[in-house]
Amino acid sequence: MTKTPTLETAFARFVNAQVQSGALASRRNILNAVRRLVQHELASADADIQHLRDALQLGIDSGPGRDAEEGFDDLERRYRAMGAGRTA
Q1: Tens digit of pLDDT for each residue in 24-38?
Q2: Taking the mean position of all CA atoms in its chain, how far away is CA 80?
Q3: Residue 64 to residues 34, 59, 85: CA-CA distances in angstroms?
Q4: What pLDDT does residue 9 have?
Q5: Is 5 a residue whose pLDDT tops 80?
Q6: DSSP label at 23?
Q7: What pLDDT, on a 0 to 100 scale, did the predictor assign at position 56?
Q8: Does residue 88 have a pLDDT over 60?
Q9: CB within 8 A of 31, min separation 6: which ones?
Q10: Which of 22, 24, 38, 73 allows an S-S link to 29, with CB 3.0 to 4.6 Å?
Q11: Across residues 65-69, what is the average pLDDT?
């Protein structure tokens, strides 16, 4: 039966391989790099959430919406008028 390595074991192997290959000088360097990456990802996620909140607020501030059928009917009238050579 194959044993699935735990995250700790997999991470320890990764860290050891990085140090042994010379990619990073020490375990501390690797942990600092991981910390920076996680901080960057969290900041990026926060920025995405803020962007969505801003877009939602923009929609709220734009005022009441209108029924989709009413909008489509309006568009249909405009296009029919354009096809007849006049503007609505």
Answers
A1: 888 888 888 889 999
A2: 41
A3: 46, 9, 32
A4: 87
A5: no
A6: S
A7: 95
A8: no
A9: 15
A10: 24
A11: 89
Residue owning tokens 């919406």: 65
> Are 20 and 27 contacting, i.e. CB atoms less than 8 angstroms apart?
no
Task: For residue 34, give the nearest of 6, 5, 26, 4 by alpha carbon.
Answer: 26
DSSP, res 25: S
Check: CB of residue 27 under 8 Å from CB of residue 19: yes
The region, left, alpha or beta by phi > 0 then psi within -120 to 50, assigned to residue 85 is left
Q: Is 8 exposed, middle or buried (0-12, 13-18, 19+ CB in 10 A)?
A: exposed
Q: Looking at this protein, which amino acid is placed at residue 75?
A: L
Task: Give the closest residue to 34 by CA, choosing from 57, 56, 59, 7.
Answer: 7
Q: HSE on the CB side for 51, CA within 13 Å? A: 6
Q: What letter does residue 84 receive in the DSSP assignment?
A: T
Asked if residue 30 lies in contact with residue 18, where contact means CB atoms within 8 angstroms, the answer is: yes
